[in-house]
Design brief:
Helix content of chain A: over 70%
Number of strands of chain A: 0
Number of helices of chain A: 9
Strand content of chain A: under 5%
Radius of gyration of chain A: 20 Å
Largest sheet of chain A: none
Distance between the termini of chain A: 63 Å
Shape of chain A: elongated
Oligomer: homodimer
Chain lengths: 202, 202
DNA sequence: TTTTATACTTAACAGTGTTAAGTGAAATAA
DNA sequence: TTATTTCACTTAACACTGTTAAGTATAAAA
Protein backbone atom coordinates (compact mmCIF):
# COMPACT_ATOMS: atom_id res chain seq x y z
CA UNK A 1 0.00 0.00 0.00
CA UNK A 2 2.51 2.58 -1.19
CA UNK A 3 1.76 6.01 -2.55
CA UNK A 4 0.34 4.41 -5.67
CA UNK A 5 -2.77 3.25 -3.81
CA UNK A 6 -3.11 6.49 -1.96
CA UNK A 7 -3.11 8.47 -5.19
CA UNK A 8 -5.67 6.20 -6.72
CA UNK A 9 -7.88 6.69 -3.69
CA UNK A 10 -7.48 10.46 -3.93
CA UNK A 11 -8.36 10.33 -7.59
CA UNK A 12 -11.57 8.44 -6.83
CA UNK A 13 -12.33 10.97 -4.12
CA UNK A 14 -12.08 13.94 -6.46
CA UNK A 15 -14.14 12.09 -9.07
CA UNK A 16 -16.91 11.71 -6.51
CA UNK A 17 -16.57 15.35 -5.50
CA UNK A 18 -17.08 16.44 -9.10
CA UNK A 19 -20.02 14.08 -9.46
CA UNK A 20 -21.63 15.40 -6.28
CA UNK A 21 -21.19 19.02 -7.28
CA UNK A 22 -22.54 18.41 -10.76
CA UNK A 23 -25.51 16.44 -9.49
CA UNK A 24 -26.49 19.14 -7.04
CA UNK A 25 -26.30 21.84 -9.70
CA UNK A 26 -28.00 19.80 -12.41
CA UNK A 27 -30.87 18.83 -10.16
CA UNK A 28 -31.30 22.33 -8.80
CA UNK A 29 -30.94 24.34 -12.00
CA UNK A 30 -31.15 21.89 -14.88
CA UNK A 31 -28.43 20.58 -17.14
CA UNK A 32 -28.61 23.34 -19.74
CA UNK A 33 -28.25 26.09 -17.17
CA UNK A 34 -25.13 24.76 -15.52
CA UNK A 35 -21.76 25.42 -17.09
CA UNK A 36 -18.57 23.46 -16.63
CA UNK A 37 -17.05 26.59 -15.16
CA UNK A 38 -19.75 26.71 -12.48
CA UNK A 39 -19.11 23.11 -11.51
CA UNK A 40 -15.39 23.79 -11.39
CA UNK A 41 -15.94 26.84 -9.19
CA UNK A 42 -17.97 24.78 -6.75
CA UNK A 43 -15.23 22.21 -6.27
CA UNK A 44 -12.53 24.90 -6.36
CA UNK A 45 -10.62 23.48 -9.30
CA UNK A 46 -10.05 24.79 -12.78
CA UNK A 47 -12.67 23.81 -15.41
CA UNK A 48 -10.19 21.69 -17.32
CA UNK A 49 -9.65 19.39 -14.36
CA UNK A 50 -13.11 17.95 -14.91
CA UNK A 51 -11.99 16.75 -18.32
CA UNK A 52 -9.30 14.65 -16.64
CA UNK A 53 -12.06 12.66 -14.95
CA UNK A 54 -14.91 12.77 -17.45
CA UNK A 55 -15.04 12.73 -21.22
CA UNK A 56 -17.31 15.76 -21.51
CA UNK A 57 -20.36 17.40 -19.99
CA UNK A 58 -22.71 14.75 -21.36
CA UNK A 59 -20.62 11.99 -19.83
CA UNK A 60 -20.79 13.71 -16.47
CA UNK A 61 -24.55 13.73 -16.74
CA UNK A 62 -24.71 10.14 -17.89
CA UNK A 63 -22.85 8.91 -14.83
CA UNK A 64 -25.25 10.80 -12.59
CA UNK A 65 -28.25 9.39 -14.41
CA UNK A 66 -26.95 5.87 -14.07
CA UNK A 67 -26.66 6.34 -10.31
CA UNK A 68 -30.16 7.74 -10.05
CA UNK A 69 -31.75 5.10 -12.22
CA UNK A 70 -30.13 2.35 -10.27
CA UNK A 71 -32.15 3.69 -7.34
CA UNK A 72 -35.38 3.70 -9.36
CA UNK A 73 -34.91 0.10 -10.42
CA UNK A 74 -34.15 -0.88 -6.84
CA UNK A 75 -37.42 0.71 -5.73
CA UNK A 76 -39.38 -1.08 -8.42
CA UNK A 77 -37.77 -4.41 -7.63
CA UNK A 78 -38.67 -4.01 -3.97
CA UNK A 79 -42.29 -3.46 -4.93
CA UNK A 80 -42.35 -6.59 -7.06
CA UNK A 81 -40.92 -8.62 -4.20
CA UNK A 82 -43.48 -7.56 -1.63
CA UNK A 83 -46.50 -7.58 -3.96
CA UNK A 84 -47.87 -10.99 -4.91
CA UNK A 85 -50.57 -10.03 -7.45
CA UNK A 86 -48.80 -9.32 -10.76
CA UNK A 87 -51.30 -6.72 -12.00
CA UNK A 88 -51.20 -4.92 -8.67
CA UNK A 89 -47.40 -5.06 -8.74
CA UNK A 90 -47.35 -3.58 -12.23
CA UNK A 91 -49.71 -0.80 -11.18
CA UNK A 92 -47.64 0.08 -8.15
CA UNK A 93 -44.46 -0.15 -10.18
CA UNK A 94 -45.79 2.34 -12.71
CA UNK A 95 -46.90 4.62 -9.94
CA UNK A 96 -43.37 4.44 -8.53
CA UNK A 97 -41.93 5.25 -11.95
CA UNK A 98 -44.05 8.37 -12.38
CA UNK A 99 -43.52 9.49 -8.80
CA UNK A 100 -39.81 9.06 -9.26
CA UNK A 101 -39.90 11.30 -12.30
CA UNK A 102 -41.79 13.96 -10.40
CA UNK A 103 -39.48 13.67 -7.41
CA UNK A 104 -36.33 14.09 -9.51
CA UNK A 105 -37.61 16.13 -12.46
CA UNK A 106 -34.21 17.23 -13.70
CA UNK A 107 -32.85 13.72 -13.56
CA UNK A 108 -35.88 12.49 -15.42
CA UNK A 109 -35.55 15.30 -17.90
CA UNK A 110 -32.03 14.57 -18.91
CA UNK A 111 -32.42 10.82 -18.97
CA UNK A 112 -35.79 10.43 -20.64
CA UNK A 113 -36.86 13.74 -22.12
CA UNK A 114 -34.10 15.76 -23.68
CA UNK A 115 -30.63 14.35 -23.74
CA UNK A 116 -28.05 16.89 -24.64
CA UNK A 117 -26.01 17.03 -27.78
CA UNK A 118 -26.00 14.66 -30.70
CA UNK A 119 -25.99 11.51 -28.57
CA UNK A 120 -29.74 11.25 -28.68
CA UNK A 121 -30.44 8.48 -26.21
CA UNK A 122 -27.83 6.16 -27.60
CA UNK A 123 -25.86 6.01 -24.38
CA UNK A 124 -28.76 6.39 -22.01
CA UNK A 125 -30.64 3.28 -23.00
CA UNK A 126 -27.79 1.17 -24.32
CA UNK A 127 -27.41 -2.48 -23.47
CA UNK A 128 -26.49 -2.95 -19.83
CA UNK A 129 -27.30 0.59 -18.71
CA UNK A 130 -29.40 1.25 -15.65
CA UNK A 131 -32.18 2.67 -17.79
CA UNK A 132 -32.27 -0.59 -19.68
CA UNK A 133 -32.34 -2.49 -16.41
CA UNK A 134 -35.47 -0.56 -15.43
CA UNK A 135 -37.07 -1.34 -18.78
CA UNK A 136 -36.27 -5.03 -18.46
CA UNK A 137 -37.80 -5.09 -15.03
CA UNK A 138 -40.97 -3.57 -16.40
CA UNK A 139 -41.08 -6.19 -19.12
CA UNK A 140 -40.75 -8.95 -16.55
CA UNK A 141 -43.73 -7.52 -14.71
CA UNK A 142 -45.77 -7.49 -17.90
CA UNK A 143 -44.67 -11.02 -18.71
CA UNK A 144 -45.93 -12.18 -15.34
CA UNK A 145 -49.36 -10.73 -16.08
CA UNK A 146 -49.49 -12.34 -19.51
CA UNK A 147 -48.29 -15.72 -18.21
CA UNK A 148 -50.98 -15.82 -15.56
CA UNK A 149 -53.57 -14.97 -18.18
CA UNK A 150 -54.49 -11.63 -16.66
CA UNK A 151 -53.98 -9.69 -19.90
CA UNK A 152 -55.88 -10.17 -23.13
CA UNK A 153 -52.89 -9.23 -25.28
CA UNK A 154 -49.92 -11.58 -25.50
CA UNK A 155 -47.24 -9.51 -27.21
CA UNK A 156 -45.17 -8.83 -24.12
CA UNK A 157 -42.72 -6.49 -25.81
CA UNK A 158 -45.45 -4.36 -27.37
CA UNK A 159 -47.45 -4.11 -24.15
CA UNK A 160 -44.34 -3.18 -22.21
CA UNK A 161 -43.55 -0.38 -24.62
CA UNK A 162 -47.13 0.88 -24.54
CA UNK A 163 -47.16 0.87 -20.75
CA UNK A 164 -43.84 2.66 -20.62
CA UNK A 165 -45.12 5.24 -23.08
CA UNK A 166 -48.15 5.90 -20.88
CA UNK A 167 -46.05 6.42 -17.80
CA UNK A 168 -43.54 8.50 -19.65
CA UNK A 169 -46.28 10.58 -21.25
CA UNK A 170 -47.82 11.63 -17.97
CA UNK A 171 -44.50 12.13 -16.19
CA UNK A 172 -42.91 14.18 -18.94
CA UNK A 173 -45.94 16.40 -19.49
CA UNK A 174 -46.33 17.12 -15.79
CA UNK A 175 -42.65 17.98 -15.61
CA UNK A 176 -42.32 20.11 -18.70
CA UNK A 177 -45.68 21.89 -18.50
CA UNK A 178 -46.15 22.81 -14.86
CA UNK A 179 -48.26 25.83 -15.76
CA UNK A 180 -50.83 23.86 -17.71
CA UNK A 181 -54.25 23.65 -15.97
CA UNK A 182 -53.89 20.02 -14.90
CA UNK A 183 -56.56 18.24 -12.94
CA UNK A 184 -55.43 16.80 -9.62
CA UNK A 185 -52.07 15.13 -10.13
CA UNK A 186 -52.66 11.97 -8.15
CA UNK A 187 -56.09 11.44 -9.64
CA UNK A 188 -54.69 11.88 -13.14
CA UNK A 189 -51.88 9.39 -12.62
CA UNK A 190 -54.19 6.85 -11.01
CA UNK A 191 -56.77 7.30 -13.77
CA UNK A 192 -54.09 6.79 -16.36
CA UNK A 193 -52.88 3.58 -14.78
CA UNK A 194 -56.45 2.42 -14.27
CA UNK A 195 -57.37 3.06 -17.90
CA UNK A 196 -54.66 0.96 -19.41
CA UNK A 197 -54.71 -1.86 -16.89
CA UNK A 198 -58.43 -2.33 -17.44
CA UNK A 199 -57.84 -1.90 -21.18
CA UNK A 200 -55.33 -4.72 -21.03
CA UNK A 201 -57.30 -7.01 -18.72
CA UNK A 202 -59.25 -9.97 -20.05
CA UNK B 1 -51.15 53.68 -51.26
CA UNK B 2 -48.06 55.77 -50.76
CA UNK B 3 -44.64 54.57 -49.77
CA UNK B 4 -45.91 53.94 -46.27
CA UNK B 5 -47.89 50.93 -47.38
CA UNK B 6 -45.13 49.67 -49.59
CA UNK B 7 -42.68 49.70 -46.70
CA UNK B 8 -45.11 47.87 -44.48
CA UNK B 9 -45.52 45.26 -47.20
CA UNK B 10 -41.77 44.92 -47.54
CA UNK B 11 -41.45 44.53 -43.79
CA UNK B 12 -43.98 41.71 -43.78
CA UNK B 13 -42.13 40.13 -46.68
CA UNK B 14 -38.82 40.06 -44.86
CA UNK B 15 -40.56 38.76 -41.75
CA UNK B 16 -41.83 35.82 -43.75
CA UNK B 17 -38.41 35.29 -45.31
CA UNK B 18 -36.85 35.03 -41.87
CA UNK B 19 -39.60 32.69 -40.74
CA UNK B 20 -39.14 30.48 -43.79
CA UNK B 21 -35.38 30.29 -43.39
CA UNK B 22 -35.64 29.54 -39.68
CA UNK B 23 -38.29 26.88 -40.21
CA UNK B 24 -36.26 25.09 -42.83
CA UNK B 25 -33.16 25.07 -40.64
CA UNK B 26 -34.99 24.15 -37.42
CA UNK B 27 -36.83 21.29 -39.06
CA UNK B 28 -33.75 19.98 -40.81
CA UNK B 29 -31.21 20.33 -38.03
CA UNK B 30 -33.10 20.96 -34.84
CA UNK B 31 -33.52 24.13 -32.83
CA UNK B 32 -30.43 23.75 -30.69
CA UNK B 33 -28.15 23.21 -33.65
CA UNK B 34 -29.16 26.33 -35.54
CA UNK B 35 -27.65 29.66 -34.62
CA UNK B 36 -29.06 33.09 -35.27
CA UNK B 37 -26.00 33.78 -37.38
CA UNK B 38 -26.78 30.80 -39.59
CA UNK B 39 -30.34 32.00 -40.15
CA UNK B 40 -29.03 35.47 -40.93
CA UNK B 41 -26.55 34.06 -43.41
CA UNK B 42 -29.31 32.19 -45.19
CA UNK B 43 -31.41 35.31 -45.73
CA UNK B 44 -28.31 37.41 -46.43
CA UNK B 45 -28.85 39.93 -43.66
CA UNK B 46 -26.90 40.65 -40.53
CA UNK B 47 -27.87 38.62 -37.42
CA UNK B 48 -29.17 41.68 -35.63
CA UNK B 49 -31.79 42.30 -38.28
CA UNK B 50 -33.72 39.28 -37.00
CA UNK B 51 -34.12 41.06 -33.68
CA UNK B 52 -35.96 43.87 -35.42
CA UNK B 53 -38.66 41.38 -36.37
CA UNK B 54 -38.65 38.89 -33.51
CA UNK B 55 -38.07 39.21 -29.81
CA UNK B 56 -35.49 36.45 -29.60
CA UNK B 57 -34.69 32.96 -30.85
CA UNK B 58 -37.44 31.38 -28.79
CA UNK B 59 -40.02 33.80 -30.20
CA UNK B 60 -38.93 32.87 -33.71
CA UNK B 61 -39.55 29.26 -32.86
CA UNK B 62 -42.86 29.94 -31.22
CA UNK B 63 -44.21 31.64 -34.33
CA UNK B 64 -43.19 28.64 -36.42
CA UNK B 65 -44.80 26.23 -34.00
CA UNK B 66 -48.04 28.16 -34.06
CA UNK B 67 -48.15 27.86 -37.82
CA UNK B 68 -47.44 24.16 -37.73
CA UNK B 69 -49.93 23.43 -35.01
CA UNK B 70 -52.64 25.28 -36.79
CA UNK B 71 -52.21 22.67 -39.51
CA UNK B 72 -52.44 19.81 -37.02
CA UNK B 73 -55.67 21.13 -35.57
CA UNK B 74 -57.08 21.59 -39.06
CA UNK B 75 -56.29 17.96 -39.83
CA UNK B 76 -57.94 16.79 -36.63
CA UNK B 77 -61.02 18.92 -37.22
CA UNK B 78 -61.38 17.47 -40.71
CA UNK B 79 -61.35 13.97 -39.25
CA UNK B 80 -64.06 14.84 -36.76
CA UNK B 81 -66.23 16.25 -39.51
CA UNK B 82 -66.08 13.21 -41.73
CA UNK B 83 -66.29 10.63 -38.98
CA UNK B 84 -69.68 10.10 -37.35
CA UNK B 85 -68.84 7.64 -34.58
CA UNK B 86 -67.27 9.66 -31.73
CA UNK B 87 -65.01 6.88 -30.45
CA UNK B 88 -63.78 6.15 -33.94
CA UNK B 89 -63.21 9.87 -34.48
CA UNK B 90 -61.19 10.08 -31.26
CA UNK B 91 -59.12 7.09 -32.29
CA UNK B 92 -58.38 8.49 -35.70
CA UNK B 93 -57.67 11.91 -34.22
CA UNK B 94 -55.10 10.45 -31.86
CA UNK B 95 -53.54 8.53 -34.69
CA UNK B 96 -53.29 11.79 -36.62
CA UNK B 97 -51.69 13.49 -33.63
CA UNK B 98 -48.98 10.86 -33.27
CA UNK B 99 -48.39 10.66 -37.02
CA UNK B 100 -48.05 14.41 -37.12
CA UNK B 101 -45.39 14.28 -34.43
CA UNK B 102 -43.47 11.63 -36.34
CA UNK B 103 -43.81 13.53 -39.60
CA UNK B 104 -42.51 16.79 -38.12
CA UNK B 105 -40.27 15.51 -35.31
CA UNK B 106 -38.39 18.76 -34.81
CA UNK B 107 -41.56 20.77 -34.68
CA UNK B 108 -43.01 18.34 -32.21
CA UNK B 109 -39.81 18.41 -30.21
CA UNK B 110 -39.72 22.10 -29.69
CA UNK B 111 -43.41 22.49 -29.04
CA UNK B 112 -44.12 19.52 -26.82
CA UNK B 113 -40.87 18.02 -25.66
CA UNK B 114 -38.14 20.47 -24.86
CA UNK B 115 -38.85 24.14 -25.16
CA UNK B 116 -35.78 26.24 -25.06
CA UNK B 117 -34.71 28.61 -22.36
CA UNK B 118 -36.56 29.45 -19.20
CA UNK B 119 -39.96 29.87 -20.83
CA UNK B 120 -40.88 26.29 -20.07
CA UNK B 121 -44.05 25.88 -22.07
CA UNK B 122 -45.67 29.01 -20.75
CA UNK B 123 -46.03 30.54 -24.19
CA UNK B 124 -46.57 27.33 -26.11
CA UNK B 125 -49.77 26.29 -24.40
CA UNK B 126 -51.05 29.65 -23.28
CA UNK B 127 -54.66 30.64 -23.66
CA UNK B 128 -55.56 31.16 -27.31
CA UNK B 129 -52.46 29.51 -28.75
CA UNK B 130 -52.71 26.93 -31.51
CA UNK B 131 -51.47 24.23 -29.16
CA UNK B 132 -54.35 25.07 -26.84
CA UNK B 133 -56.74 24.95 -29.79
CA UNK B 134 -55.58 21.39 -30.48
CA UNK B 135 -56.08 20.45 -26.84
CA UNK B 136 -59.57 21.95 -26.79
CA UNK B 137 -60.48 20.03 -29.89
CA UNK B 138 -59.35 16.81 -28.24
CA UNK B 139 -61.48 17.60 -25.20
CA UNK B 140 -64.52 18.15 -27.39
CA UNK B 141 -63.94 14.72 -28.91
CA UNK B 142 -63.78 13.16 -25.47
CA UNK B 143 -66.88 15.08 -24.36
CA UNK B 144 -68.78 13.63 -27.31
CA UNK B 145 -67.86 10.11 -26.23
CA UNK B 146 -68.88 10.77 -22.64
CA UNK B 147 -72.16 12.44 -23.65
CA UNK B 148 -73.18 9.51 -25.79
CA UNK B 149 -72.39 7.17 -22.92
CA UNK B 150 -69.58 5.41 -24.70
CA UNK B 151 -67.07 5.92 -21.89
CA UNK B 152 -67.36 4.63 -18.34
CA UNK B 153 -65.54 7.61 -16.86
CA UNK B 154 -67.22 11.01 -16.82
CA UNK B 155 -64.46 13.41 -15.83
CA UNK B 156 -63.93 14.87 -19.30
CA UNK B 157 -60.94 17.00 -18.35
CA UNK B 158 -59.13 14.12 -16.67
CA UNK B 159 -59.77 11.68 -19.53
CA UNK B 160 -58.61 14.27 -22.05
CA UNK B 161 -55.37 14.78 -20.21
CA UNK B 162 -54.81 11.03 -19.88
CA UNK B 163 -55.46 10.50 -23.57
CA UNK B 164 -53.14 13.34 -24.48
CA UNK B 165 -50.46 11.90 -22.21
CA UNK B 166 -50.74 8.54 -23.96
CA UNK B 167 -50.34 10.04 -27.40
CA UNK B 168 -47.56 12.30 -26.27
CA UNK B 169 -45.79 9.44 -24.55
CA UNK B 170 -45.59 7.29 -27.63
CA UNK B 171 -44.80 10.17 -29.99
CA UNK B 172 -42.06 11.65 -27.84
CA UNK B 173 -40.37 8.35 -27.09
CA UNK B 174 -40.33 7.31 -30.73
CA UNK B 175 -38.87 10.67 -31.64
CA UNK B 176 -36.23 10.99 -28.95
CA UNK B 177 -35.16 7.32 -28.85
CA UNK B 178 -34.96 6.19 -32.46
CA UNK B 179 -32.26 3.64 -31.62
CA UNK B 180 -34.32 1.82 -29.04
CA UNK B 181 -35.43 -1.69 -30.14
CA UNK B 182 -39.05 -0.74 -30.76
CA UNK B 183 -41.60 -3.23 -31.99
CA UNK B 184 -43.32 -2.29 -35.24
CA UNK B 185 -44.26 1.38 -35.07
CA UNK B 186 -47.75 1.19 -36.46
CA UNK B 187 -48.63 -1.84 -34.39
CA UNK B 188 -47.39 -0.09 -31.27
CA UNK B 189 -49.38 3.08 -31.89
CA UNK B 190 -52.53 1.15 -32.74
CA UNK B 191 -52.12 -1.09 -29.69
CA UNK B 192 -51.69 1.98 -27.51
CA UNK B 193 -54.85 3.58 -28.85
CA UNK B 194 -56.72 0.30 -28.60
CA UNK B 195 -55.67 -0.24 -25.00
CA UNK B 196 -56.98 3.04 -23.68
CA UNK B 197 -60.12 3.23 -25.76
CA UNK B 198 -61.15 -0.21 -24.54
CA UNK B 199 -60.03 0.76 -21.04
CA UNK B 200 -62.35 3.76 -21.22
CA UNK B 201 -65.28 2.01 -22.86
CA UNK B 202 -68.29 0.91 -20.84
C1' DT C 1 20.38 13.72 -7.69
C1' DT C 2 18.44 13.33 -12.05
C1' DT C 3 14.68 11.80 -14.73
C1' DT C 4 10.00 10.72 -15.50
C1' DA C 5 5.25 10.65 -14.62
C1' DT C 6 1.26 12.80 -12.63
C1' DA C 7 -2.02 16.48 -11.44
C1' DC C 8 -3.44 20.47 -12.40
C1' DT C 9 -3.70 25.35 -14.58
C1' DT C 10 -3.35 29.14 -18.04
C1' DA C 11 -4.61 30.82 -22.25
C1' DA C 12 -6.88 30.33 -26.07
C1' DC C 13 -10.23 28.73 -29.86
C1' DA C 14 -14.39 28.89 -32.03
C1' DG C 15 -18.66 29.36 -31.14
C1' DT C 16 -23.35 31.12 -28.77
C1' DG C 17 -27.53 34.72 -28.00
C1' DT C 18 -28.03 39.39 -27.57
C1' DT C 19 -27.47 44.61 -27.40
C1' DA C 20 -25.66 49.49 -27.71
C1' DA C 21 -24.14 52.52 -30.88
C1' DG C 22 -23.57 54.05 -35.44
C1' DT C 23 -24.57 54.61 -40.68
C1' DG C 24 -26.74 55.67 -44.89
C1' DA C 25 -30.78 56.19 -47.44
C1' DA C 26 -35.50 57.29 -47.94
C1' DA C 27 -39.61 59.94 -46.45
C1' DT C 28 -41.39 64.04 -44.54
C1' DA C 29 -41.45 69.08 -43.35
C1' DA C 30 -39.84 73.67 -44.08
C1' DT D 1 -35.29 72.53 -53.02
C1' DT D 2 -33.23 72.03 -48.79
C1' DA D 3 -33.20 70.63 -43.91
C1' DT D 4 -34.82 67.42 -40.70
C1' DT D 5 -36.42 63.36 -39.06
C1' DT D 6 -37.47 58.57 -39.36
C1' DC D 7 -36.46 54.06 -40.52
C1' DA D 8 -33.85 49.77 -41.86
C1' DC D 9 -29.99 47.87 -41.24
C1' DT D 10 -24.95 46.94 -39.82
C1' DT D 11 -20.65 46.98 -37.00
C1' DA D 12 -18.55 45.96 -32.93
C1' DA D 13 -18.79 44.33 -28.76
C1' DC D 14 -20.33 41.86 -24.30
C1' DA D 15 -20.57 38.04 -21.58
C1' DC D 16 -21.05 33.74 -22.00
C1' DT D 17 -20.51 28.46 -23.66
C1' DG D 18 -17.82 23.61 -24.15
C1' DT D 19 -13.44 22.13 -25.12
C1' DT D 20 -8.31 21.63 -26.01
C1' DA D 21 -3.21 22.50 -26.61
C1' DA D 22 0.50 23.80 -24.15
C1' DG D 23 2.81 24.75 -19.99
C1' DT D 24 4.03 24.28 -14.85
C1' DA D 25 4.86 22.79 -10.62
C1' DT D 26 5.15 18.68 -7.52
C1' DA D 27 5.70 14.05 -6.26
C1' DA D 28 7.46 9.43 -7.34
C1' DA D 29 10.93 6.42 -9.47
C1' DA D 30 15.53 5.55 -11.25
Amino acid sequence: MGPRQRREREREQLRQEILDAARELFVKEGYENVSMRRIAEKIEYSPTTIYLYFQDKADLLFQICEETFAKLTDEMEAITRECKDPVEALKRGCRAYVDFGLRYPNHYRVTFINHPGRLEGQPYLREGSQGMRAYNHLRQGVEECVKEGRFRETDVEAITQAVWASGHGIASLLITKPDFPWVNRDKLIDLMIDIYTSGLSV
